[in-house]
Amino acid sequence: xxxxxxxLAAVSSFVLGGLWYSPALLGRAWNRENGGDxxxxxxxxxxxxxxxxxLVAAFAFAxxxxxxxxxxxxxxxxxxxxxxxxxxxxxxxxxxAQRSTALWLIDGGxxxxxxxxxxxxxxxxx
Length: 126
Known about the structure:
Elements: H1 3-20, H2 27-33, H3 43-65, H4 71-96, H5 101-124
Helix pairs in contact: 1-3, 1-5, 4-5
């Protein structure tokens, strides 16, 4: 496993999240769909813990892919994991929590793109 590629994959996820949930993209819609009163924790804790989770996800995905995955396989695997596992699991929870389809599309879409990025990085950098 290329540890540097895993760290880069986690960083790419973090950058994607910053853009995805920014007011310039989907941040306003995400906030509205959450009722507009999303509790805010200490930024250092929120970002620090989020980055640790990104690292965990990137390491797990890299382990699952194995060493030197071919790029098409890695990217397709990212799509399958992101959409077919993570977003689908969110969908189950969101249905029981009575959360909106729009919120599911925002959050599930982010994680789908996140894992596709993981696959891109891990498929390119062995």
